[in-house]
Write a structure and sequence with these properties.
With about 280 residues, this protein is an all-beta fold. It is about 5% helix and about 45% strand.
């Protein structure tokens, strides 16, 4: 989720009704079962790590993005088969929220990786579903970062997917793609994910692929996304470089994750590729 540095790649708006089915006959298998899944009947500590603090203890105050929140365990709840992360203003005026990761417990290289999520309403909110490399040997972003979904309350009709790579800050680079819809994504459940194969990452919302990145699109920088497994992260940041100005009256607000599932990349025949894109003006 760190955003400082250079950016390459277009931001796109989905315009239309033309859909192309993925044509590779080797993709898709009937009765696909998840390779790994989390249904959030409980928060298993052998799988999920609860992150606490504001990043200052690791020299990353504001989590590198001037974010307002400090993460804590009470902001995370499991109820009715849902993971609920709530951003709120505490009695002392501080902003609290939640973040969990599978670092050290589960990581995946390649596949169809998705979550079913209900996004909240609230200006300044920045919930995300993303991945970082397991067993990092080098500083961020030399081994990459994959952002499956980033969403902000100030622009609730857009879903952002991104990858981070390049040199150490300030020479880091990110490539991002944005799906823009006529209606807000907040308030209803949506399935968002990536189809990650060698030399290719495709982002989708509700089974429609809206963006694809390959090594050619980020040249001359190196493609580092075939090198190792990445672990999962679910969180809700507040404010910061992407979240924007917080409106405190909009808190508390809760993002709900129904499940996270990982499939073989071959289990993708139901995905479709949007054939009509147009650049936005921002």
């Amino acid at each position: 989720m760190l955003l400082t540095g250079m950016r390459v790649g277009p931001i796109r708006g989905y315009l239309g009704a033309v859909v192309l089915c993925l044509a590779d006959p080797t993709w898709g298998a009937p009765n696909c079962e998840p390779l790994w899944q989390e249904e959030f009947n409980e928060l298993n500590p052998s799988v999920w790590n609860i992150i606490e603090g504001d990043g200052c203890d690791i020299g990353l105050c504001g989590w590198g993005n001037n974010e307002l929140q400090a993460y804590d365990a009470p902001s995370i709840q499991i109820a009715d088969g849902l993971l609920r992360i709530t951003a709120s203003v505490a009695e002392d005026g501080s902003v609290r929220s939640g973040k969990i990761t599978t670092a050290g417990n589960y990581a995946q290289q390649f596949g169809r990786i998705e979550t079913r999520v209900r996004l909240p309403e609230g200006r300044g909110l920045w919930p995300a579903f993303w991945m970082m490399p397991e067993d990092q040997h080098f500083r961020w972003p030399l081994e990459g970062e994959i952002d499956i979904l980033e969403w902000t309350g100030h622009q609730p009709n857009r879903a952002i997917g991104a990858i981070h790579f390049g040199e150490l800050p300030p020479g880091n680079v990110h490539y991002s793609e944005t799906l823009r819809r006529a209606d807000s994504l907040a308030g209803e459940f949506h399935t968002v994910g990536i189809l990650w194969t060698p030399q290719r990452i495709a982002w989708y919302v509700d089974d429609q692929i809206h963006s694809v990145v390959t090594p050619e699109r980020i040249a001359p920088w190196s493609w580092v996304f075939d090198d190792k497994s990445f672990y999962l992260i679910l969180n809700m940041a507040v404010g910061g470089t992407l979240g924007g100005e917080l409106v405190p009256e909009d808190l508390p607000a809760t993002v709900e994750f129904d499940w996270v599932r990982v499939y073989s990349a071959a289990c993708s025949d139901h995905l479709s590729l949007d054939a009509v894109f147009a650049p936005t003006l921002d």
